[in-house]
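This protein record is not my work; I was only asked to verify it. Take the sequence as given and treat only the tokens as open to question. I have pasted the whole thing underneath without changing anything:
***
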Amino acid sequence: MTDSIMADQLGRRNKIHPKKFALWVACASMSMLFAALTSAYMVRQAAGNWLEFPLPNIFFVNTAVIILSSVTLHASYIAFKSEREKAYKGLLIVSLLLGITFVVLQFEGWEVLAANGIPLKLNPSGDFVYALSWIHLAHLLGGIAAILIAVIVALSRPFKKTPARQLRFEMTLTYWHFVDGLWLYLMVFWILQR
């Protein structure tokens, strides 16, 4: 093997996959969106006419659910890599169910907010909580769709660890950890702003 071919192969191994790069760019742009929105929150809060209210406890339960979903999805990925098919499939399904549970609990959280006298369009403080959590949920639904596709592939095709499947799983895992991190960021932000 010539030196130029070996150098070319080594160069390819050290480069990030284009799909992964695109995902990281998308995550960076989403991070900027949430940074801008939380900055707007702080600016509007400083302007006055701001209603202080506690976050509903269900938001904290939801935080535990999304963290657990990240743990189970990561465990599923590890099982996939080590070719433990049953654990991989089972944990993948659990992750999907936890993601759906997060969505259901999020709607319940909004209902609790409204029942506690914080309906949409009453005060900017509540409006920001609704808007930020809705935008997060929209991004999370993309992650649920990716996990659902992974479940369909896992259950409909014979188990085989291929580079293409591993890449798809890695990207799903990265995105899911990202939306999990976004939710944690929002929760810490809201707690510190109260």
Remarks:
- The mean pLDDT is 90.
- Helices lie at 3-14, 18-46, 57-81, 85-115, 124-156, 163-193.
- The chain has one domain: 21-42+56-193.
- The longest helix spans residues 124-156.
